[in-house]
Amino acid sequence: MYRASILLLSGICILSSGCASIIHGTTQEISLSSNPSGAKVQADGNQVGETPTNVTLKRKTDHVLLFNKEGYEQEQRTVMHVISGAVYGNIAAGGLIGWGVDAATGAQYKLVPETVNVELQPAKAGSSETKTQAIQMSTEDKLKELEKLMKDGQITK
After folding, report:
1. How far apart, in Å, do the first and last CA atoms of the chain sit?
2. Per-residue pLDDT for 102 more than 70?
3. C-alpha distances in angstroms, 23 versus 80, 85, 90?
């Protein structure tokens, strides 16, 4: 009797848990890189590191990644959540409860792409990146830059 109770309880636990929740969880690691490397990365507005790096994101939603490096244009990428094949395994096995668990936790999704590599483009004159750099320059640095431009013949007195 005790053995039958354990088998029945085990069967109920297996059928009521989500297949995808067990197999790959509710988060996914995404690999991030840039050329040149060393770009600061934000995921959904939160600083997550510098390239190359890995970031762990929740599977339940799309995510916006911003790549910033001084002297380069900001790049943005979207990591999207799509239905994972594990959902079909739940449905085929008759695990509607398991599918419900996976849907509620977000485990039924996978994030694509799994690897994000961006080619950073040099900042153009007058872009927000170069304007930000000019604002951050000290008065002394600005004067030195003007002297250099005058010496190179690009500006006059």
Report:
1. 99
2. no
3. 20, 11, 12
Residue from 23, 16, 28 nearest 112 by CA: 28
Phi/psi of residue 12, each to 5°? -65, -40
Rounded Cα distance between 52 and 66, Å, is 14
**Residue 90 CA to chain centroid, in angstroms?**
28
Q: CA dist 13 to 8, 59, 71, Å?
A: 9, 23, 55
pLDDT, tens digit, for every residue of 25-59? 788 999 999 999 999 999 999 999 999 999 999 88
**Site of tokens 């959540």:** 81
Give the DSSP letter of residue 18: -
27 class by beta-carbon count within 10 Å (0-12 exposed, 13-18 middle, 19+ buried): middle
DSSP assignment of 81-139, as one string?
EEE-THHHHHHHTT-HHHHHHHHHHTTTEEEE-SEEEEEPPBPPTTSHHHHHHHHHS-H
How many other C-beta atoms lie within 10 A of the C-beta of residue 61? 13
Comparison of pLDDT for 95 and 139, the residue scoring more: 139
Strand order in the sheet with 27-35: 53-58, 27-35, 115-119
